[in-house]
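Support case: user asked for a sample of complex input and structure output to validate their parser. Sending the pair below.
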Amino acid sequence: MDLLTLLSNLSDGMIVSIQIFALTLVLSLPLGLIVALGRMSKNPILRNLVKVYISFMRGTPLMLQLMVVYFGPYYMFGLIMPRGYRFYAVIIGFALNYAAYFAEIYRGGIESMPVGQYEAAKILGYSKVQTFFRIIMPQVIRRIIPSITNEVITLVKDTSLAYVISVTEMFTVARAVASAQANMMPYVAAGVFYYVFNFVVATVMEKIENKLSYYR
Amino acid sequence: MSLLEIRQLKKSFGDLQVIKNISLKVEQGEVIAIIGPSGSGKSTLLRCATMLESIDAGDILYLGESAFKADKDGMPHKVTGAELKKIRSYFGLVFQDFNLFPHFSVMKNVTDALIHTQNKSKEEAYDIGRRLLTKMGLSEKENAYPFQLSGGQQQRVSIARALALNPKVLFFDEPTSALDPELTSEVLKVIKSLAKEHMTMVIVTHEMNFAKEVANHVIFMDEGVIAEEGTPEEVFGNPKSDRTKAFIKGYQ
């Protein structure tokens, strides 16, 4: 198999990998903020529920969580899910898992903000919501970008875990081709794909970081 | 009617009673300096007056409107909603460590609250901002960010930020304690110029000469009570209590 055929075989898988990556980010970044707010809630029931959630999400393998999301509805409730559910199960599993990690990053950032910023905002008449979105969050985002970058890079590589429920992302295709052809090249191509993907991610994140570092 | 009246204020942190029983009045145009040793409750008094702290007993009234309402057990609670907003609009506070918003330019620091909490147009807010920054000697700095300014300049921005909202009374919580002597003088100069314009101010300070010069009324606090008060001449020139004498002597 020449390189071009190999790449065209892999390209469908690449698109799926990129879809998993993008959808996970779009869902888990906002969801993580909501989880973080729950984690910091004054209501002890909500706070502890969220704490347990985060603990499970971080304490068990993502691979296992994907299986639970995919097989759970049938095994637990006898629900037969529609054909396309496989892909949605991946997105749900990833989003729930990454939201837990992002939540803790948000929390760290929010709790690192000096109380003086809240007090100044209060004296100036900002509402709680205004204070959070105008004063606190812009500074929090700037502080947490390096940690977010770490997670995003991990996410690129984690997309390969979708193979456990047979979603044909790039790595699934590479494995299939490699074993059919008894050839190393698909793995090399897969490695290059992940590396280039992450190189782009790291570059973009660095750009964002630089854009936000106009102040100290 | 007094601009601000504090009646029999009490405030504890756990077992520590920081403010034992304080009553005071601030009249329109008055400049009050609050002096006293560290831990005497000066800053806590300001934080209660600006509603950053809850209070345990007593009352705080702005233009006769109570900022706290007693519940059925007699515990005072902050007023809420529109009432709270109205009370807050009466005062401004200048912090010891400025608390500027680092991600906003100087101009935005001064005008953002005008635009977003008082619904002023951007043009109107910027006009006010420019006027105040010029007055503070900072017209060149409107596009700078706080980290690019000296401590004295930052404190002057924070004074402009407080003045922008046109408060009836401005509180200062040790406005020069984070500054070296040279920067201190430029901030004190600004406060003096405000005093000349009869801005009502309550200033917690360790700068005795400044207090003597700028205040019409000096309050000496010690261990959570007003140990002595009067005109600067009375308190500094002829202190009655031994505690005041000892404290003032320590500064000369």
